[in-house]
C-alpha cells in the first residue's frame, strides 16, 4: 500500500512533469525551435490531417505529447 509520503512525492513529480510539458508547448507555439530533451532532435508538430494523432513529436519517438485539437 502507498503511504502519504510516497503519494506526496508522486504528486510533486507529476506536477513538475506537467509544468515542463506546458512550458515546452508554450515555447513551441510561440514559434521557437524546441529540441527533444532525450536525443536532441528538433520537435515537430503533427496536425490531425497529417497523422492520426495531433501533437508534438520527436522523430525517434522519445518525446510524444498528444494534443486534443477539438
What would you say this structure looks like, in words?
With 70 residues, the protein is an alpha+beta fold. The chain has one domain. It has one helix and three strands; from the N terminus they run H-E-E-E. It has one helix spanning 4-29; strands at residues 44-46, 55-57, 64-66. Strands 1-2-3 form a three-stranded antiparallel β-sheet, with no helix packed on it. Strand 1 and strand 2 (55-57) form a beta hairpin. It starts with a helix and ends with a strand. The relative contact order is 0.14. The model has no long low-confidence stretch (mean pLDDT 87).
Q: What characteristics describe this protein?
A:
70 residues; three-stranded antiparallel β-sheet; alpha+beta; elongated; 1 helix
What is the strand and helix layout of this fold?
Elements: H1 4-29, E1 44-46, E2 55-57, E3 64-66
Antiparallel strand pairs: 1-2, 2-3
